[in-house]
Amino acid sequence: MAEEKHHHHLFHHHNEEEKPVEAVTYSETAYGSGGPGEYYETTETVGFNVPDQDKIDEYEKEKKHHKHKEHLGEMGAAAAGAFALYEKHEAKKDPEHKHRHKIEEEIAAAAAVGAGGYVFHEHHEKKEAKEEEEKAEGKKHHHLF
């Protein structure tokens, strides 16, 4: 049988730059004999994944990005709603241009609804980024429904 060299060094690097560790594996080999002329070899290998810090940082950055966009959408919805109320007030105050103010009120109300939809969308994206981050860290999810 040809002998193979196995290197089991924890800190052995071929070059100076460090590479991220994606999985850790531990291997143990045992030798024994069952009687005269009988020999055996057993190998037990245990491995687990180590979360990649770059991916975790990327998920955190994405989560922050969506949170920021969600807050901007909230401000946009509030501003559009306030403008719609202002135009409603102007329509009552200025009967000569009532039709124009009514149209602007409806446009502002539609913009507020659209901004609310955008906020909902960004909130969903933020939750997805959070779940991906937790998955990368190895946290378990229990979805019951």
From TrEMBL:
Basic residues bias (residue ranges): 1-12
Ranges for region Disordered: 1-20, 123-145
InterPro entries reported for this sequence: ABA_WDS
Biased composition (Basic and acidic residues): 123-137
Family (UniProt): Belongs to the abscisic acid and water stress-induced protein family.
PANTHER family, alphabetized: ABSCISIC STRESS-RIPENING PROTEIN 5, OS04G0423400 PROTEIN
Protein name: Abscisic stress-ripening protein 3-like
Organism expressing this protein natively: Sesamum indicum (Oriental sesame)
Organism ancestry: Eukaryota, Viridiplantae, Streptophyta, Embryophyta, Tracheophyta
